[in-house]
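Milestone M4 deliverable, item 7.
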Amino acid sequence: QVQLVESGGGLVQTGGSLRLSCAASGSIVNMRDAGWYRQAPGKQRELFASITSGGNTNYSDSVKGRFTVSRDNAKKTVYLQMNSLTPEDTAVYYCNVRFGFLNRSYWGQGTQVTVSS
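Output delivered:
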């Protein structure tokens, strides 16, 4: 079994920065592609950043140029650096990572990010 633990959320003012971490533990085999999702109140969960096992990244237009996803395979951790935050970035942020030959998907517990105006 794999567990993903997120950390780094919190309250920040407009224009500020936060760094989220998503650390994997347990029976880890082949940490594969990872994605960051967020869910704002009353809205669906959306994928906005992803990183392949080889380090290729992709971003939605809403975060491109402000957010950076990275990974440290040795530490089994995926990161999300968020800069120039706005109130529209307020949401619960989730990481999703796939593992193993079956490419099984696991979710972090979610971490609240609140950006005040």
